[in-house]
Inverse folding.
């Protein structure tokens, strides 16, 4: 059991990372990574939805017939997204004002659906919850890294406005790498997203080759 | 009907019902809180554009509907002191790079700007979003200006021959904001009598 959980954690964070290995969820990966803070916010909201939807889908997996599984998965994911959206708006309004835009987008991210189909529909509740959680954390890490790359090059800052997302205590994270107006604009525009992602994919591939890991083509690897 | 089809329909229907109830319940519990938050947001943005010293009423609760030139109703919030209107605030909008920019504009009874804040926009992060006072103080430079100061034909960004700075790398956003404020001031000028009339 312990080795299985360790494998789940390692898959989510690196080996089968949602963005860097499965290459799923490209829409939020491109659209929401104009700054590290945005990437972090989108990632955390997605991680929460993935953990809870995977848990529910695994719990109900005995009742979901094969033919209607996809609409049921989408229904569960959309319901979790709506619950998160309404709850944040009501009780964590400051956070909602930052994340509000991103949250409905999670339904259109195919990573939660992918994990539901590949993992939660077959595996027990605890393992599915962990898979959703660590896939989500891996997704968060990838988005935050891409966001940081684009933000440093494009705006010369790192984690700008982090206090809006995480609270005033995190103001120390906000750094200015170089003066304003020296940024390379293209980094925060759409092409910058592709450039940063490509660079990150190349780095991961290089590290995996150096570690002697077999190279898996995007999308081909699953449980 | 094929019994298997019936089973699928029942499964799907049961999940729809169950999660529908979950979403409806969440809505029920959050509805009041969410509308409270919306009122708070309105009050917060009103206090940003109407200084607390000039009124003794709650502008969020004192509003009138005024038709603008396009025939659309504009909700105008009024700040009053001792029964006299000292300032008004209303929503204006301009075309930005990423879509509509919505702002709230506060104008004193004499036609000078009390303050202006962007409330909703989708401008490019790091470029156009410098209209947000959390990111740059650009938007505060409009305070105490009026249609006469600078002259009305100078209410443009520098690139268009006006007096207002654009941002490096972004002209469309400031152009949209300056244009929106100018239209907002013209709206005030056209309806001044109606807006500042004593109650």
């Amino acid at each position: 059991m312990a080795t299985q959980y360790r494998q789940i954690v390692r898959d989510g964070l690196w080996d089968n990372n949602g963005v860097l290995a499965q290459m799923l969820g490209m829409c939020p990966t491109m659209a929401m990574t104009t700054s590290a803070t945005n990437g972090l916010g989108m990632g955390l909201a997605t991680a929460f939805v993935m953990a809870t939807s995977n848990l529910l889908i695994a719990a109900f997996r005995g009742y979901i017939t094969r033919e209607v599984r996809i609409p049921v998965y989408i229904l569960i994911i959309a319901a979790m997204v709506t619950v998160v959206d309404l709850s944040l708006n009501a009780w964590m309004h400051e956070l909602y004002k930052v994340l509000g835009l991103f949250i409905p987008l999670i339904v259109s991210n195919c990573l939660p659906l992918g994990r539901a189909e590949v993992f939660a529909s077959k595996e027990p509740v605890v393992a599915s919850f962990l898979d959703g959680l660590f896939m989500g954390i891996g997704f968060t890490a990838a988005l935050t890294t891409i966001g940081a790359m684009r933000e440093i090059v494009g705006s010369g800052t790192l984690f700008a406005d982090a206090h809006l997302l995480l609270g005033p205590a995190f103001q120390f994270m906000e750094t200015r790498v170089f003066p304003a107006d020296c940024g390379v604009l293209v980094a925060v525009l759409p092409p910058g997203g592709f450039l940063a992602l490509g660079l990150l994919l190349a780095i991961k591939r290089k590290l995996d080759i150096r570690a002697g890991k077999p190279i898996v083509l995007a999308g081909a690897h699953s449980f | 009907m094929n019994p298997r089809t019936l089973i699928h329909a029942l499964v799907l229907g049961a999940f729809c019902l169950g999660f529908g109830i979950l979403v409806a319940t969440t809505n029920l519990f959050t509805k009041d809180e969410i509308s409270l938050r919306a009122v708070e947001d309105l009050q917060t943005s009103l206090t940003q554009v109407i200084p607390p010293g000039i009124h003794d009423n709650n502008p969020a609760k004192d509003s009138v509907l005024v038709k603008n030139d396009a025939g659309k109703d504009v909700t105008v919030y009024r700040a009053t002191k001792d029964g006299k209107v000292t300032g008004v605030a209303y929503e204006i909008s301009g075309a930005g790079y990423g879509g509509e920019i919505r702002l709230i504009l506060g104008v004193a009874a004499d036609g000078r700007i009390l303050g202006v804040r962007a409330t909703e926009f989708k401008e490019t992060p790091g470029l156009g979003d410098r209209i947000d006072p959390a990111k740059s103080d650009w938007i505060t430079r409009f305070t105490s200006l009026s249609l006469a100061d600078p002259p009305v034909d100078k209410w443009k960004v520098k690139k268009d021959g006006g007096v207002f700075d654009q941002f490096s790398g972004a002209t469309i956003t400031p152009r949209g904001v300056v244009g929106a404020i100018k239209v907002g001031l013209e709206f005030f000028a056209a309806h001044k009598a109606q807006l500042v009339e004593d109650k």
